[in-house]
Design a protein that fits this description.
alpha+beta
Length: 127
């Protein structure tokens, strides 16, 4: 079964991440690289990407005469999508285990950041 894991962050998370020491940032990035390498080695990783900050986002809606584009950030959002993983796992339990690892990525002094990670099964089209 395919699962998408969505790592969410808040403005507060972003502010605290921006104050991490270079060593803490290196540990965080190293954690993510090691996580992705282990998921690739197990055959579970299909794709993983970090995303740019919300101020670089665009909101596009279909409209007659061409879609209007609105620049981000979007003030009504309390959280924003910081990154995602597309996985193929044997079970929901395994996907939950991986989401827990992601949530525990290290922050200041190695303390887990505990980012919220949304886990969603990827739907299969009928037919």
């Amino acid at each position: 079964m395919k699962y998408m894991l969505l790592m969410n962050a808040t403005k507060s998370d972003l502010a605290s991440f921006g104050t991490l020491s270079p060593d803490d940032i290196q540990k965080h990035v190293g954690f993510m690289h090691d996580l992705n390498a282990s998921l690739k080695a197990s055959g579970e990783l299909l794709l993983a990407e970090g995303l740019t900050m919300p101020n670089e986002a665009k909101l596009v809606r279909a409209r007659e005469g061409g879609p209007p584009v609105t620049d981000g950030p979007f003030p009504e959002a309390k959280e924003f999508l910081a990154g995602f993983w597309l996985l193929e796992c044997e079970s929901l339990e395994r996907a939950v285990e991986i989401a827990g690892r992601i949530s525990g990525a290290p922050g200041r002094g190695g303390v887990p950041l505990n980012f919220a990670v949304e886990l969603r099964p990827v739907g299969v089209a009928p037919g």
